[in-house]
Fold:
Amino acid sequence: MSVLVTGGAGFIGSNFVLDWLDQCDEPVINLDALTYAGNLENLARLQGDARHTFVRGDIGDAGLVSSLLAEHQPRAVVNFAAESHVDRSIHGPAEFIQTNIVGTFNLLESVRAYWNGLEGEAKAGFRFLHVSTDEVYGSLGKTEPAFTETHRYEPNSPYSASKAASDHLVRAYHHTYGLPVLTTNCSNNYGPYHFPEKLIPLVIHNALAGKPLPIYGDGQQIRDWLYVGDHCSAIRRVLEAGRLGETYNIGGWNEKANLDVVHTLCDILDELAPPATFNLPIASYRSLITYVKDRPGHDRRYAIDASKIQRELGWKPAETFETGIRKTVQWYLNNQAWVRNITSGEYRNWVETQYAVEAVA
Ligand code: NAD
Ligand code: DAU
Structure:
């Protein structure tokens, strides 16, 4: 028995692979293209571990995927591989269409052929779990109820539209071909190995360097935040007991405005690593907060109703925002070498492109 994980060198995928092998000995075949977001350093502690096989490659490469399936005969595929950053999808949507839509389509085709060739228990027990996002549901007003699994799809960015399309393909492969699929739609994750293009790791990274902490627009956009380890445990649970063809929303019941998240990060950093530690001439990291031009089409609010997964599968998050965010800040402080290694080269080019605009306040 083994599982094929795609995108397992990225933020959530690598956390998932590490957690999986902490919990059990079932081997993982990890297929990742190692784009700018994939980082083998995340998996460093698995070096020499025979339970982990890393393969560099594209989910859209049908020949490669088919040969991996034939060779390893996995009982499940967990699909994390994607282009994942909204701002990058605004600057250049083409790769999002290619990986998230065409790549998922090709992966589904390879998996369908493999599954068709299985027999008996192997066929009945096989699962394709597709990891998706709450962004497919669009944006909520301040007082609207949180997204349930039946909320209509209203994606607003090239990223969320491409994820929505991939969700629809996964659904269609179940209804049309009977492929045993499961889909999860999760809210904003944070935690170790989070690439510092996303709000939380970017703010920690910039603060420690004494650089501006960029807040898009008025900073009152709301996200639901989930500690990445909780996302991983939810996916394991859905894989284990989710009903075929169903969608499960995963969230942390932690709605926060961006500005509040940034204030919290500054306060924890002030306590754990005061600016003076880095010879920064400021009393608090809060003074680095800088309002910048808003993200085009910026969704105002996401909120996840995660009662279905709790009711049906007994899953709920273990971390509160307060415990998870403190752990996360501590992890970044303890792993500055990891941050240094990835914030070179391509990362610098991205930051120059994205934040080349003047601060607005
Ligand atoms: P990430 O950008 O950190 O990692 C994506 C990984 O996929 C990278 O390792 C990259 O190399 C790999 N990859 C990209 N294109 C590939 C391809 N064509 N073939 C094989 N590998 C490829 O993303 P993440 O934040 O870890 O997100 C993982 C998944 O979870 C995505 O599908 C994303 O949509 C979804 N998701 C993310 C969040 C979040 O808050 N980060 C929340 C909900 C859902
Ligand atoms: O909701 C789930 C989604 O969460 C995932 O599907 C995506 O893959 C993931 O990237 C994340 O998307 P967001 O756009 O919500 O995350 P990001 O960290 O980019 O931004 C969080 C909020 O912070 C958002 O309202 C934009 C804002 N922001 C972001 C950055 C990078 C800023 O104000 N300043 C910034 O510099």
About this structure: Residues 84-86, 133-135, 187-188, 198-199, 202, 214-216, 221, 223, 258, 295, 302 surround DAU (ligand 2) (CB under 6 Å).
